[in-house]
Write a structure and sequence with these properties.
By secondary structure, chain A is α+β, with helices and mostly antiparallel strands. Chain A has 48 helices and 32 strands. Chain A is 47% helix and 12% strand. In chain B, strands 26, 27, 28, 29, 30, 31, 32, 33 and 34 form a 9-stranded antiparallel β-sheet that branches. In chain B, strand 16 and strand 17 (254-258) form a beta hairpin. The chains are: A alpha+beta, B mainly beta. The interface between A and B is large, with 61 and 48 residues.
């Protein structure tokens, strides 16, 4: 059966015409070899093709605009081959597609890379199999070019997400185990026989797939079109996989990627000191780009080839998996991996129009439903299972980057094979155009160099202290991942009930109102706190409002994030704090130790949000201060390089500003953060002085300057709230929170164990102290110095909180939960130092007690984690399951829709919300409606009119009145709730910590003859006050003169219990805490229980005569009253001040300006540092050695050494 | 500085600080917050200070106008300002009425709640717009008369150490809830016949807000010569009084007793005089679940007895007869002190029975005193008595105390000549009567230290049968 094949192109050695006709009995095959700047391997490929025993084989070389014309080289080997030079380089797929316009009459195309060598019988075996199986696409068994006994591919498996998995193991020896002909979902490129009519029908390869993935796309579309794809292992092809292995520049067939890389290379020029990394960066970038191409094209295939139904099923799964992969990659420092994932989606989304066209085109050819097509797909997620397999078999680097990293670490497998494998993206197959001979490199491990005394110097060339390192090799990323995973699981397990059901209303965990309400409170100049205050609100409300808006109003989720998120944030901060030590183990151990402290969980149990914020904030502050001090190893890049010397003034200023922004953010939610920073600064500064050193005074000064300066920045950023906070009589209480009674303060032993709650009250928790003592015992040089500073800081914090608890610090008595955070951070920091000392100092000692001490410290640290582990079984960290939201819900909207107050009394440690202090151990707050919400958490330093309520309470406590209800009636206090437990006591279910108010309080309330006790169990006693005035009420004209007189006479009659409050009718219903109410009011005297009286106005716009403003009076010393001569539709509203708006505007502007300044500074610094902070340098150096050593070896073996060492600036890894 | 030196210094410093603070922490104990005076005074009846915004008295235990023991309430104002207020009378039939009251400065007013509202039993709340006013009530009837203080606060528990249902004796318990909160009350009895009783009918007695409920204990403690009573408010709080109405002469009498809100370890009876052919009995009630070992010391002006150790079993009462004490003889005043050796709280009262031929009332019971004060208000008598007989002032401190007694009258507080600046040695009792006896004058006792005060009255069967209540002043 003869066929005529017409080739259009340049017939080598004959003419420039590419037309040729052939008559043959066998099906004609045209081998299409696509090449671009081929190396010396091209001749091997051509020779192998020329040696085929298939007579009807024509060879067409398509050159994608190589720099040098390869025609002569082709002619030298295959005088009868055809060569077509394409004017442009549009990538491999587009170049290969050129065959469609050049060849006529061919039965098959054999699409080849230019670095393959088919066995002489390969083509005829493929053709035979095509006929035998009626397969449209047939692929050979692909083996390693240098070692044909090693299998590279025998077809490919694909999962529903397009992830490609090899059907052979990396480096698998060919024993004939895969020699059966099989249907496969896809076959790898390199050397593939494709039926020409199908290729033509499908339009060839997808032109958008410049490289990596065009074979998957073609096979998938072939499957959709009803064609078979088989692998014929009898046909063997050797393949170098130059591009897939990273040994060939990607630019050749991936113009867009190449352009991107060139741009980045240009961008980085001029920064000479980073050029040394370029060689290693090249490999990384090449590999990353391959990964990026592979991932995006896999996703493109999915988006293109599925029908709508399956696409709708698959896309959500892919989104979830990609998000998880992205997050994990970020968390584990593989930012390149994360960017690859992000790029794949971004690129495909940008091509959505093109995809629609492609889908429509494919629909025309669809013969098989997706359910049929998917028969050959793998179940589950091949990417996920491959990732996990690599992670557990090798390590996280291998999991993220392929197994090159593992090869570098262990050199366990054949270098060539490993190098090829290394470039495989997550188990993806290799597709490449390559050609050079030469052995693959085996990068050496940096630690090997370190052990040999050749540990790399810093990027700036300065030598750092050489540290012998114990066991770093064994401390693989897998161990880290496993530990982190276990920690995350424990945290989630321990918080499972909180994550599911949310928080009960206890302590400071108050419900969040809507994001709009929080924004309104921030912007409004009137706060309903107490009886109403004119003044600014904390910017924290603004931040919550903005974030809540971003979360589409999911304030419940927001609360979980800002509360529970403090725990990982603190651990992250601790990890960052210890990062300059250069020990991954130290980072991990420090962070885990910090997580294992009972402190945050006790804060959760007690509902202390400020304690959690302090916990999250402390390591970051400590890091900023340590960096400001500049003591080794905390020094910035410039300092270490000696380029700029010690920290310059401008650097200190920027550090101060940056810390100030962070401090302001924390202080907006927990004002005590301000004191926290000062304590950290003072403690660390004191530590510098105590520990000594040549530059100790300067270092201490810098620490104190930055701490003080950042606090000043905070004061400015939080202006005008700061001034209102500091200007009030209760400024210290507003900053530190109400004081505890000395008798209820934790003992010294409890403080040392961080047992300020239900968790950690066991001797086991002393283990942290033992562990933290290790660096004091075995540390040397800066380890010892920092250990000393950490201990001094911890002791300062402990002693301060101990003194404060005993009432010996005057009005400044910070709660233990807050001031223990610096101690906890210092302790975890010291534990990390212990690890570094163990790694670096211990080997220098002879065997003795120090080794034993290390073991004891390790055991102690392990034992100390037990309390928290045990506490995690609770699922809510011992936090009460039921809060006062349930217990007091019966208050509901009653008693008046016109508003009422609830007076909350109790010890601040159990009182829900904030509150003002009456005396140590007793605080109060007035809430509008039944329960406080988060806006009541920061009551400010001035009580305003609410101080009158305290006076009345004191009267009752002193036995001076039996009419407290009448006294509180003008303040619309309908209920008095005396809280004695953190949450309701429910026998058999929960018994929250008790912190009762002074014992005379309930007695005093009980003897009031006008209060009705409504609830007297379950941790709260509630008294009802039937005499309370509605918050907005009117006394109609004609009421008893005595009633009217009661208003006029102020509170005289009220105090005697003789105020005839009957006759007051509620009016102007509305939500509590609003600053405007409207409605119809009958003639009479309107009373509004909102302060301050002069700032409220009543207006009416009746009769079209414009707005009429009623004249106001003042009742009971705080409340506005208005006389209405006739019924009217009125509006009662707060009269805002323009100065408040201006102040808030300036405040917002300050934030924007400072953020802008810092952002610009960070961008400039990042550009200068190559997008890396100095924190990353050490890790980067490790990466650098890994990569540069590869090309160094590679250079001796092949022709692409120049390519491998070519400077590029695309950075990969955790520092990019 | 070498690493070795620095290491040693640091380790030593850390150890010193940690150990040093630990030592101080253990050594310097943190005392719990002092119990406030208000808490100390919890349930104790006392006169509110002059400067208070408002004060209240709760008077209960009297019968209605047609009953056998209607009550009069005496408001004694020893302050310099007039005090006005409201009296709200509540009857056991649910009727209530409000009436204005006014007490001029250094004067007194007498009110009769039983005449204001109809009902078998009447209680009253007196709300005043100031302090310095004491309230006592007097019940009188055919069987005699008795005086008791009104309560200045409610309580969730009340204890009575003695009452008799023997023969024709009647024992009425009044539960008055002057608050706005409904109360549920359990009443337990400890009888000599049947021991501890918890009559179902007396469990969870509902005492609605602002109401009075009366129970006749004789219904459940029948023919019992000494019934002790415990009142527990399961919710809310109440005021409880007992009215013992003994049979006809020769042993008739009325005893109006305000309960004791809480047991105490220390009690005293400033002055007792054994009547000729009569007897004095001290009832010691132990409402706790532990054995109480009570030391009883009797002291005359010349002799002091050795402590008599009286074991009082849990939930039981013991009677100690003064007649059995060797040196206590008729007509010789003596002081009795009761001290629980093991700290178990008890409740003590004294019952005096006069000779059969004596003037009624011949039998009367008054609570012992468990608290002391340096200022007392002794209202004048409003009953048939002729006013101040013997005033006994006992120094319960360990140091000499100077005492001055004032008579409150139109010219203010005037020193009583023979009771001015008298010095009392520790443990001694001043027994004297004002000379000349001020007519219807309230007395104010001021001392430089804690004293106990008791005022015996005239024209009763024997000294101590009726004792005018003395009210500590806040």
């Amino acid at each position: 059966m003869g066929r005529r094949v017409a080739l259009t192109g340049a017939r080598l050695a004959l003419s420039d015409s590419l037309i040729g006709l052939m008559e043959t009995a066998a099906p004609s095959v045209v081998a299409v070899v696509v090449t671009r700047d081929p190396g010396p391997w091209l001749e091997d490929t051509l020779r192998a093709l020329g040696a085929q025993d298939y007579s009807e084989l024509s060879i067409l070389v398509l050159d994608a605009n190589s720099t040098e014309d390869p025609t002569a080289r082709v002619g030298e080997v295959l005088p009868n081959a055809y060569v077509r030079r394409l004017g442009t380089n549009d990538g491999f797929a587009a170049s290969a597609n050129a065959v469609l316009g050049m060849v006529e009459g061919a039965s098959y195309y054999l699409v080849c890379h230019d670095d393959v060598a088919p066995d002489p019988d390969a083509v005829h075996l493929l053709v035979e199999e095509s006929f035998r199986s009626n397969a449209a696409i047939v692929a050979p068994k692909v083996v390693d070019f240098e070692d044909p006994s090693r299998l590279l591919h025998v077809g490919l498996a694909v999962d529903k997400g397009g992830a490609v998995v090899d059907r052979v193991e990396p480096g698998e020896i060919d024993h004939g185990q895969h020699d059966a002909v099989q249907d496969v979902f896809a076959v790898p490129g390199g050397c593939t026989l494709v039926r020409a009519d199908l290729f033509s029908e499908l339009g060839g390869f997808d032109r958008a797939v410049v490289a990596m993935g065009e074979d998957l796309d073609l096979c998938w579309r072939a499957q959709v079109a009803g064609a078979r794809v088989v692998v014929a292992p009898a046909a063997v092809v050797r393949h170098q996989e130059r591009m897939a292995s990273g040994r060939r520049e990607l630019d050749g067939f991936a113009p867009d990627i190449g352009h991107h890389r060139r741009a980045r290379r240009h961008q980085s020029s001029g920064h000479d000191r980073f050029h040394r990394r370029d060689r290693s960066d090249h490999d990384k970038s090449n590999r990353t780009d391959l990964l990026a191409l592979q991932r995006r094209h896999e996703l493109r295939a999915v988006l293109k080839c599925y029908g709508p139904f399956h696409l709708a099923r698959v896309i959500p799964q892919l989104v979830i998996l990609s998000t998880a992969e992205f997050t994990l990659a970020l968390l584990t420092g593989h930012r390149a991996r994360a960017s690859v994932v992000a790029h794949s989606w971004k690129w495909n989304v940008s091509k959505r129009k093109e995809l629609r066209i492609e889908r429509a085109e494919l629909k025309k050819h669809r013969r098989f439903a997706d359910s049929e097509v998917r028969r050959l797909q793998l179940h589950g997620s091949a990417r996920l299972s491959g990732f996990l397999r690599r992670a557990f078999t090798y390590d996280m680097n291998a999991a993220h980057l392929g197994r090159a990293h593992d090869a570098a670490l262990g050199g366990l497998e054949d270098a060539g094979a490993m190098m090829a494998l290394s470039t495989a993206p997550s188990g993806a197959h290799r597709v490449g155009l390559s050609g050079a001979q030469g052995g693959a490199p085996r990068p050496s491990h940096p630690e090997a160099q370190a052990h040999a005394g050749s540990r790399p110097s810093d990027a700036d060339g300065s030598r750092r202290e050489e540290l012998p390192v114990l066991g770093e090799r064994r401390f693989s990323a897998t161990v880290q991942t496993a530990l982190w995973s276990a920690t995350v699981i424990i945290l989630i397990f321990g918080s499972r009930q909180l994550l599911g059901a949310g928080f009960p209303v206890i302590g400071q965990l108050l419900p969040f109102p809507s994001s709009g309400e929080m924004l309104h409170r921030f912007l409004s100049g009137w706060q309903p706190t107490g009886l109403g205050l004119t003044g600014p609100a904390t910017p924290g409300l603004g931040i919550l409002g903005v974030v809540g808006t971003i979360l589409v109003g999911a304030v419940g989720l927001l609360q979980k994030i800002v509360v529970l998120g403090c725990v990982p944030l603190g651990a992250w901060g601790m990890s960052r704090l210890v990062a300059p030590f250069g020990s991954k183990r130290a980072r991990l151990v420090s962070a885990l130790a910090y997580l294992a402290l009972p402190l945050p969980y006790n804060a959760i149990a007690a509902g202390r949000w400020d304690g959690l914020i302090a916990y999250a904030f402390a390591p970051w502050v400590l890091r900023a201060l340590a960096t400001a001090a500049g003591a080794e190893p905390y020094s910035n890049r410039e300092e270490r390089s000696g380029v700029h010397g010690p920290l310059r003034r401008s650097q200190l200023l920027r550090k101060t500003l940056a810390l100030g922004v962070a401090e302001a953010t924390a202080a907006a939610f927990a004002p005590s953060s301000v004191l926290l920073v000062l304590v950290l600064g003072a403690g660390l500064g004191f530590g510098f002085i105590v520990v000594g050193g040549a530059d100790r005074w300067n270092q201490a000064k810098r620490v104190c300057l930055v701490a003080g300066g950042s606090t000043a920045v905070t004061a400015v950023l939080l202006w005008p709230w700061t001034f209102s906070l500091l200007g009030g009589p209760g400024r210290w209480v507003a900053l530190t929170g109400p004081a505890e009674l000395p008798s209820s303060a934790p003992s010294w032993g409890h403080l040392l164990r961080f047992a300020v709650g239900p968790i950690g009250d066991t001797v086991l928790a002393f283990g942290f102290l033992l562990a933290a003592a290790l660096p004091l015992l075995i540390g040397g040089r800066w380890r010892l110095a920092w250990a000393g500073r950490a201990w001094v800081l911890a002791l300062v914090a402990w002693v301060l909180v101990w003194l404060g608890g005993r009432g010996w610090t005057g009005p400044i008595a910070m709660p233990a939960q807050i001031l223990l955070a610096p101690a906890g951070a210092a302790l975890a920091f010291a534990i990390g130092l212990g690890v570094v000392a163990f790694e670096s100092d211990l080997p220098a000692y002879r065997f003795g007690w120090r080794q034993g001490a290390s073991l004891v410290a390790a055991a102690a640290a392990l034992v100390a984690t037990v309390p928290v582990l045990v506490a995690s079984t609770n699922g809510r960290w011992s936090m009460p399951a039921t809060g006062y939201g349930d217990t007091t819900s019966w208050m509901g909207p009653a008693p008046s829709a016109s508003g009422y107050h609830v007076l909350w009394l109790g010890n601040a440690s159990v009182l829900p919300g904030g509150g003002w202090q009456i005396e140590p151990g007793l605080s109060y707050e007035l809430t509008s409606g039944s329960l406080p919400d988060v806006t009541d958490l920061w009551p400010g330093a001035s009580e305003g009119a609410a101080s009158a309520v305290v006076h009345d309470i004191e009267l009752a406590r002193n036995g001076d009145t039996i009419h407290l209800g009448s006294l509180l009636a003008p303040y619309s206090v309908s209920y008095i709730a005396v809280v004695s437990n953190l949450g309701p006591v429910i026998p058999g279910e929960q018994s929250p910590p008790s912190s009762p108010p002074p014992s005379d309080l309930n007695y005093a309330l009980g003897r009031q003859i006008d209060l009705r006790q409504m609830l007297s169990e379950g941790g709260v006693d509630v008294y009802g006050n039937g005499a309370a005035l509605p918050q907005r009420a009117v006394l109609e004209s004609g009421a008893a003169a005595s009633s009217t007189g009661a208003i006029a006479s102020g509170d005289t009659a009220v105090r005697q219990g003789q105020l005839p409050l009957e006759g007051w009718k509620p009016v102007l219903p509305g939500s509590s805490g609003a600053n405007s109410y409207s409605g119809r009011v009958p003639a009479g005297t309107l009373f509004a229980g909102v302060a301050p009286a002069p700032d409220w106005q009543l207006s009416s716009s009746q009769n079209g005569s414009g707005e009429y403003k009623f004249k106001s009076g003042t009742a009971f010393g705080y409340a506005p009253t208005f006389a209405l001569n006739q019924p009217a539709d009125v509006t009662l509203k707060f009269r805002g001040s323009w100065t408040h708006g201006l102040a808030v505007g300036i405040e917002c502007l300050l934030w924007v300006l400072l953020f802008g300044f810092l952002w610009g500074w960070w961008r400039r610094a990042a550009r200068r540092l190559g997008w890396r902070g100095h924190r990353r340098v050490k890790a980067d150096v490790v990466e650098e050695v890994t990569k540069t050593s590869g090309p160094a070896q590679n250079g001796g073996g092949g022709g692409d050494s120049s390519t491998a060492t070519k400077p590029v600036t695309v950075s990969v890894g955790d520092g990019s | 500085m070498t690493d070795v030196f620095r290491r040693t210094l640091l380790v030593a410093s850390v150890v010193v600080v940690v150990a040093g603070v630990a030592l101080i922490d253990r050594t310097v104990a943190v005392s719990p917050p002092p119990t406030s005076q208000a808490q100390l005074d919890s349930g104790v009846t006392q006169v509110a200070a002059a400067g208070v915004e408002s004060s209240a008295w709760y008077c209960t235990g009297g019968s209605g106008a047609s009953g056998g023991a209607p009550a009069k309430v005496l408001l004694s104002n020893v302050g310099a300002s007039a005090v006005s207020g409201t009296l709200t009378a509540f009857s056991s039939s649910g009727v209530s009425g409000k009436f204005p009251v006014y007490v001029p400065a250094h004067a007194s007013s007498t009110l009769v709640p039983a005449g204001l509202v109809p009902g078998a039993w009447v209680a009253a709340t007196i709300e005043l717009d100031g302090g310095s006013v004491g309230a006592t009530e007097e019940v009188s009837g055919p069987q005699g008369w008795s005086e008791a203080p009104c309560a200045s606060s409610t309580s969730s528990s009340w204890y009575f150490s003695h009452g008799s249902t023997l023969g024709n004796d009647d024992l009425e318990l009044s539960l008055f809830n002057p608050t706005a909160t409904s109360s549920s009350v359990d009443v337990d009895l400890v009888t000599t016949v049947s021991g501890a009783l918890q009559p179902p009918a007396y469990q969870e007695i509902q005492v609605p807000a602002r109401s009075v409920v009366n129970e006749s204990l004789a219904d459940h403690a029948q023919q019992d010569p000494a019934t002790a009573t415990e009142v527990f408010a399961l919710s809310g709080s109440v005021v409880a009084t007992e009215l013992e109405m003994t049979g006809q002469a020769p042993a008739s009498g009325l005893s109006l007793m305000l309960g004791t809100p809480s047991p105490a370890a220390s009690w005293s009876v400033p002055i007792s005089t054994l009547p000729a052919q009569g007897r004095i009995a001290f009832h010691v009630f132990n409402p706790s679940g532990e054995l109480a070992n009570v030391d009883v010391v009797v002291k005359t002006s010349e002799q002091t007895s050795s402590p008599l150790i009286v074991p009082v079993k849990p939930d039981s009462a013991t009677t100690i007869f003064a007649n059995s004490i060797p040196f206590v003889s008729p007509g010789v005043p003596f002081t009795a002190s009761f001290q629980s050796r093991n700290g178990v709280g008890v409740v003590v009262d004294r019952q005096v029975v006069a000779a059969p031929e004596s003037q009624v009332p011949q039998r009367g019971t008054v609570p012992a005193v468990s608290s002391s004060s340096d200022q007392w208000l002794v209202p004048h008598l409003i009953g048939p008595g002729t006013g101040p007989g013997k005033l006994a002032i006992q120094n319960v401190s360990g140091r000499p105390i100077r005492v001055t007694v004032y008579a409150s009258g139109s010219s203010g507080l005037v020193e009583v000549a023979n009771l001015s600046a008298r010095t009392l040695e520790p443990g001694t009792v001043l027994v004297d009567g004002p000379t000349p006896p001020p007519p219807s004058a309230d007395l104010v006792v001021e001392a430089s230290g804690p004293v106990n005060v008791e005022l015996d009255t005239n024209k009763v069967g024997a000294a101590g049968v009726v004792v005018a209540p003395a009210l500590p002043m806040g």
